[in-house]
Specification:
alpha+beta, Rossmann fold, Immunoglobulin-like, 4 domains, 7-stranded parallel sheet, 5-stranded antiparallel sheet, 9 helices, 14% helix, elongated
Length: 601
């Protein structure tokens, strides 16, 4: 099983009604209105055009026009070039805010604190969300007959990847709870107030596990859920689950990312730990918004995982939301599972007002508007801070250049590290440069691939900064632990490249070692020297052998090449994590040029 989740507290509660105030209309994101103030009022009326865009309102006494445009950036730039213009500003439809308080009775419940903490009431006066924004909830399904979702055209049938049908019935309550935080119906005199009145598409990839201890899901079912979110044209997927490393899941994350899905995911519930963000999100954090959890006092939730991959934090302790058991059931749960939908819902509101924005802009908006908690600046617990819907949910002007996304993988050997930034991307240009900070005070490295040797063992923070062809940058970091070389007398070589050498005299040996990572199925050792055979003998004759954990000998080895000639290879099946020792023995000849190469899969 890959997917798993945990939530320490569960309590069913009721709440009292709260009075409702008037709600202004939501902004249509397709067109924007600007107020343009003039030194001298131009002779224009409603329906006339100013700079090619229609005048929809005016005030002669205050000398301004209200102009509607579908190209805000161009219009604003052109208007500022008009010498008769005093100011140009967005016609904010919620400039004077009534601060909606929903009439949903559960809104008064103490467990509904998260929505209030992030400033959703102010955000709702700008928009309640739009059904044009589509959110996949990849979880345990949905109780579609629940009073928060029943009869709502915006709640789609969804899909069950476990049963392979279109009835993703929730069997453990988790998915219904998550969906409620994102999109429970607001102002319906029932239950709670969801963050965003958007289209919900439940995907069931988790189910009740043995003995009912937790919800869990298989690698294949969850990978298919991520893929389906992309195929169905979802703008977001909410992922309140985690597990281990998986190539299938990584492929699915990349697939959905390529389809334009902004993926939001839980950091994990591993408690008092450091650098412990759950997979598969940890390895794929450059394409995912990773969420840790906060308590009602803005402190860090004790159960929450943390690490450099955390982007933002959100309320996750004791959160009240819809649940299974009956069509009017509600429950209080805790976990990064509960924090994640707060971010998904807020992101959906941002998307409503900025319909052209994708992952990079939304991720940046959430980070730059977050409330900084903990140490100043980004940190491993809170990331860039606790989300702030009031600040995030505004109309922005998309940049003409989208920033790149920094991404890299590492291979750590004893005393050294190899890095590869080939997964870095730039959606509207090219990456012009790569800069590596090794975290040990030495000069920076460069290039898409690089290696670095550390003088001392320890834990270091490696940071990659990429710059695109328009000068925009992005950085990402990871911590690496470098151990002292247990056998400095044996030459360490990296896996993959050819290692060229010259042999000694007949009867002598040369020894190498290669670090084999966990989970490999086969290691191949290749020796390439002078071509010889039984029919074409020659004096030089080199032999190769390999052994896990210690140097091979004539009598003890895990694999050994052919006994004739110097072009040979051998294979070690299911190698354990650790050192693979390679021996090159000179049977005949001396000063023989050769190379040895070790690869693994």
């Amino acid at each position: 099983m890959l997917g798993r989740l945990a939530f320490p507290t569960l309590a069913l509660t009721l709440a009292l009604a709260v009075p409702v105030l008037a709600l202004p209309g939501a902004l249509d994101g397709a067109a924007r209105q600007y107020v343009v103030g003039f030194h001298e009022m131009p002779d224009l009326q409603r329906g006339d055009a100013y700079l090619g865009d229609p005048v929809v309102d005016l005030d002669a006494a205050l000398r301004f026009l209200v102009v509607e445009t579908r190209d805000p950036a161009t219009f604003e730039a052109r208007a500022r070039l008009d010498g008769n213009v005093r100011y140009v500003e967005w016609n904010d439809p919620a400039f004077g805010r009534a601060l909606l308080v929903p009439n949903d009775p559960g809104y008064a419940n103490s467990g509904h604190w998260g929505t209030k903490k992030i400033g959703a009431q102010s955000a709702w006066d700008r928009t309640l969300g739009s059904t044009s924004v589509k959110v996949a909830v990849i979880d345990s399904g949905l109780l579609a007959t629940h009073e928060e979702f029943a009869g709502q055209a915006r709640v789609l049938a969804g899909y069950d990847t476990i049963q392979e049908d279109t009835t993703p019935q929730d069997t453990c309550g988790h998915g219904t709870h998550v969906a409620g935080t994102i999109g429970a119906t607001i102002n319906n005199d029932k239950g709670i107030a969801g963050l965003a009145q958007v289209t919900l598409y439940p995907i069931r990839g988790l189910t009740q596990a043995l003995l009912g201890i937790e919800c869990s899901g298989s690698t294949a079912d969850l990978a298919q859920g991520l893929r389906r979110a992309g195929d169905q044209g979802m703008h977001f997927s909410s992922n309140s689950w985690g597990g281990g490393t998986s190539s299938a899941i990584t492929d699915a994350i990349n697939y959905a990312y390529g389809k334009g899905v902004t993926q939001v995911a839980a950091a994990g519930n591993d408690g008092s730990c450091t650098n412990c963000v759950n997979e598969p999100w940890r390895s794929n954090h450059q394409k995912v918004i990773v969420v840790s959890s906060t308590a009602s006092n803005d402190g860090f939730s004790g159960f929450s995982s943390q690490g450099p991959e955390v982007d933002v934090a959100a309320p996750g302790s004791s959160i009240y939301s819809s649940y299974t058991g009956s069509n009017s059931a509600y429950a209080t749960l805790s976990g990064t599972s509960m924090a994640t939908p707060h971010v998904t819902g807020t992101a959906a509101l941002v998307k409503t007002l900025n319909p052209t924005w994708g992952y990079a802009q939304i991720d940046n908006q959430l980070k730059t508007t977050a409330v900084d908690l903990g140490p100043a600046g980004k940190d491993d617990r809170f990331g860039h801070g606790r989300i702030n819907a009031n600040a995030a949910v505004v109309v922005g002007t998309p940049s003409s250049n989208q920033p790149p996304a920094a991404c890299f993988s590492t291979i750590v050997s004893y005393g050294s590290i190899s890095v590869n930034a080939g997964c870095s991307t730039d959606i509207d240009g090219t990456i012009a440069s790569y800069a590596w900070n090794w975290g040990d005070g030495t000069p920076n490295g460069s290039g898409a691939t690089a290696t670095h040797n550390y003088v001392a063992a320890g834990t270091y923070t490696v940071t990659l900064t990429v710059t695109d062809n328009n000068g925009a940058t992005d950085s990402t970091s990871t911590s690496v632990t470098v151990n002292a070389d247990p056998d400095p007398g044996t030459t360490t070589i990296p896996a993959g490249p050819d290692h060229h050498a010259t042999s000694g005299a007949a009867g002598t040996d040369q020894h190498y070692k290669v670090l084999i990572p966990e989970g490999r199925t086969v290691a191949r050792v290749l020796l390439d020297g002078p071509a010889c055979s039984v029919s074409l003998p020659c004096t030089p004759d080199l032999d190769v052998s390999a052994r896990m954990g210690q140097r091979p000998t004539d009598a003890a080895y895990d694999c050994r090449g052919g006994l004739v000639g110097s072009d040979e290879d051998c294979y070690v099946a299911d190698p354990a994590e650790g050192w693979l020792y390679v021996r090159v023995h000179v049977t005949a000849g001396s000063d023989v040029a050769y190379f040895v190469r070790v690869t693994y899969t």
